Amino acid sequence: MNNSGQPGSGHVVIGVDTHKHVHVAAVMDTVSGILATLTIPTDAGGFQQLLDWATSFGKVLAFGIEGTGSYGATLTSFLRRAGHKVVEAGRPDRRLRRMNGKSDTLDAENAARAVLAGFATATPKTADGEAEMIRQLKIAHDQAVEQRTAAMVTMKAMLVHAPDDLRHDTARKTQIALARQLAGLRPRRLDEPEDALRHALRTLARRWQYLNDETKELTKMIDDLVHRAAPQLLEPFGIGVDTAAEILVVVGDNPERIKSEAALAKLAGIAPVPTGSGMTSGRHRINHGGHRQLNAAIYRTVIVRMQFHQPTIDYVARRTTEGKTKREIIRCLKRYVIREVYHLIRPAPNPLSAAS
After folding, report:
1. What is the average pLDDT across 104-126?
2. Which residues are 38's β-sheet partners?
3. What angle do CA 347, 265, 143 make, to 5 degrees?
């Protein structure tokens, strides 16, 4: 029996609204609706308290968690290790938020309803293998590249106001040579703007050198992990380590969660979206969602193939004679690359299960 006196089914789903310091959960019976809510701290003791509380209401069919890749990642891993099904609940519908208001408890209840209604079905990434390791290293790598670029842009901008002899000595140098020369400056005084400029240039040059070494080190780590996790991704023409790394980050350590080629295309923002209405049935537009970094990586692969891969060059020529624009041809080629990638990342069938 629940609080309203209605008999329950004994089968429940749990919705969880996640935050940095606390999580809010709601338990929903498949027959009698919301039964109770709970607030827990985001530590092992709180996770165990949530699990004990959830199982006290009956058989738990699934946990629907908001933010399984961010604040809910640790809870997701804990529940999986305990043998429970976890799905990504996603963000609540904005229309419902405007109508019913917004609170942590309501978000948890909406997450539970989304699971029970079948709207929340996405399987979260397990984040327990090479793909998660690559993701973490790429965060540091991409930030180092961004800061390295900013340091070089700032150095070149400051050189515009440098004395003639310094500008002449640094003209037409490569980035490495420029950073090496500026890092070797030996300003002694700090009496006038020129002295401060030399101090600033030396500091920026040494920062660029440090970030450049850091980028090379992280690139080597990512390269090793990609070759260890999925060397087959590097075999097709035009797919390098950077693109393979983006693919692995999106797919995660459990590629079986991506059920079809179309699902991977949607994750990459490459799947077309129908826009037909009335007399315009059959029309489509490009999907503006998905993982933008992976989309950009696939685009770079397509551009490389269009320039250097003879079968792709022949395909472009044929489609151009058929009246396709370059933009339309690139969209088709991106879908071909996604199809190729999907078959490369699919887990190998288990021969034991196949035999049985």
Report:
1. 86
2. 25
3. 90
- In this prediction, residues 182-204 reach a mean pLDDT of 92
pLDDT in tens, 130-169: 999 999 999 999 999 999 999 999 999 999 989 999 999 9
Confidence category of residue 9, pLDDT binned at 50, 70, 90: confident
Nearest to 274 by CA among 284, 264, 266: 284
Q: Tokens at residue 352, please?
A: 């034991």
DSSP-assigned letters across all residues of 42-80: SSHHHHHHHHHHHHTTSEEEEEEETTTTTTTHHHHHHHH
DSSP letter string over 164-221?
A: HHHHHHHTT--HHHHHHHHHT------SSHHHHHHHHHHHHHHHHHHHHHHHHHHHHH
Beta strands 273-274 and 284-285, pairing class = antiparallel
> Hey, what amino acid is at 336?
Y
Instruction: Determine what percent of the chain falls in helix, strand and coil, rounding each to the nearest 5.
Output: 60, 10, 30
Burial of 243 (0-12, 13-18, 19+ CB in 10 A): buried
Would the pLDDT of 288 be above 90?
Answer: no
Bridging pattern class, strands 86-88 and 59-65: parallel
